[in-house]
Structures are given as C-alpha cells and as structure tokens.
Amino acid sequence: MDEIKCNELNNIESEIFKDTLNKQIIFIEIKLKKTRIGFFNDKMGCTGEKEVIANHLNGGNARNLIQQFFKTDDACIICKKNKSLQRAHCHNYTRYDLLILAIDELYIDNITPIITGDIFRLFIVKHKLCPIYTLCRDCHQYYDKI
User: Fold this and answer.
1) What's the CA gap between 57 and 99, in Å, rounded?
2) 123 close to 32: Cβ distance less than 8 angstroms
3) Residues 98-112: pLDDT tens digits?
C-alpha cells in the first residue's frame, strides 16, 4: 500500500488527481453524447426539499448510475493489482454533495417538480469536479479511512 499516493488522491494539485480528472472530463463529454442509459430518460418529477430529493436518489439509483456510466480501469491506481477493482469517489465531494449541486441548478421551489433524468444528467456532469478512481478493495478500504 502506497500511503503517500493514497494521500494524493484528494489533493487538487497532485498529478494523480489532475490526470484522472482530465481523462474523466473527456470521458464524460464523449459518453454523454452517445449513452443510452435509462436513468437519463426518467421523466418522473421530484418535489420537496433539496435534501430529501438528494437522499432519495442517493440510495440505489445514483450508485447504480455511477456503476453503469463510469468504467473501471484495468488496475488499481495505487498498487497496480487487477483484482477486486472498485470505483472510489475522491473525498472532496461525496455522491450526495454532487447530487445537491445538480439539484441546486434545477431547483425552483419545493412544489415545482424537477425531472429525475435531468438531475441524473447534471449529477454526471458534476463529476467533472471530482475524479472517480479505480482502486482494489484493499486500497479502497484504506483510502476511505484516511
């Protein structure tokens, strides 16, 4: 386990952060143009307080969208193992934080519906702020503890 490299994952000035984020931004722009993921076509309207909407979507749907949209690389970015690979958000923004940022752009008031598919699309765009790393299970567990 490379502790120094793990500590760089949240540092916006580190090469690993900048390199991963730059690749991710390009990936998002290309994939959003051609994706057929059903979450983006969800026409259900959400009403209520921002936090309630974010909590509701953060459970399964946002997690599932991340799994479908973002690919994992061939090896852990820290230790280079290629088994038990997982996606890990940088700790600068949680999945909930990114949902709130997306909802903020669309929110009018607690009675005006926001289309769920629009929230999900902006949620993916907000990942241009925060890299998702490919980590093995061991490195991911360590990273989540620091």
Assistant:
1) 8
2) no
3) 999 999 999 999 999
Q: What ranges do the domains of the chain cover?
A: 3-145
A 10 A CB-CB count for 19 gives 12
CB atoms within 10 A of CB 114: 21
Dig out the tokens for 83 from the structure.
């088994």
**Separation CA 63–CA 68 (nearest Å):** 9
Tokens for 29? 């722009």
φ and ψ at 80, to 5 degrees?
75, 10
Smallest CA-to-CA distance from 90 within 130, 143, 138, 129 is with 130
Q: Does residue 7 have a pLDDT over 90?
A: no
Report pLDDT digits (tens) over 21-80: 999 999 999 999 999 999 999 999 999 999 999 999 998 899 999 989 998 889 999 999
Q: What is the pTM of this model?
A: 0.91
What residues does 86 pair with on adjacent strands?
135
How far apart are alpha carbons 11 and 8 in whole angstroms?
Answer: 5
